[in-house]
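re: the backbone from monday

yeah here it is again, tokenized this time
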């Protein structure tokens, strides 16, 4: 409470919800604007955009490129915010005078940082892997890793 007030917490929570809502509306709007001609069955854990676009018979290059650019900007902004937040957290932890207090604070932060790392690394692998590594079972495992495990 002394480092961050409730007003800042509410603003950050609202920004997280707004960015998630914006991303969902963007992807949902794109999906409803696509015509499908290859059936409607996905061999996935949940409906991700790339498998849905594979079922499409319309030319969605410009639409997909626009969504990639907007999503990349959103992800980059969130990533920068997370990094800056952790810099502030670790700076505050290092100011704690007792070693026991630092250890207690770090033991609270490090598991969360590990979950964030797992989430970000599997997302990066899922979306930036080369097309030569196209394996539906691998895609399923990665999807479970970044949705269920964290």
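seq for it, each position gets an aa:
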């Amino acid at each position: 409470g002394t480092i961050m007030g409730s007003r800042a917490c509410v603003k950050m929570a609202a920004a997280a919800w707004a960015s998630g809502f914006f991303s969902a509306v963007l992807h949902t709007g794109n999906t409803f604007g696509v015509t499908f001609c290859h059936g409607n069955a996905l061999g996935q854990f949940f409906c991700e955009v790339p498998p849905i676009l594979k079922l499409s018979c319309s030319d969605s290059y410009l639409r997909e490129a626009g969504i990639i650019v907007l999503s990349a900007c959103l992800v980059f902004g969130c990533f920068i915010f997370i990094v800056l937040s952790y810099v502030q957290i670790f700076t505050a932890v290092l100011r704690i005078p007792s070693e026991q207090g630092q250890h207690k604070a770090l033991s609270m932060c490090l598991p969360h940082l590990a979950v964030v790392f797992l989430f970000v690394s599997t997302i990066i692998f899922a979306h930036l892997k080369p097309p030569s590594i196209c394996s539906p079972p691998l895609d399923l495992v990665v999807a479970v890793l970044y949705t269920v495990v964290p």
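The chain has a mean pLDDT of 81. Residues 61-94 form the longest helix (34 residues).
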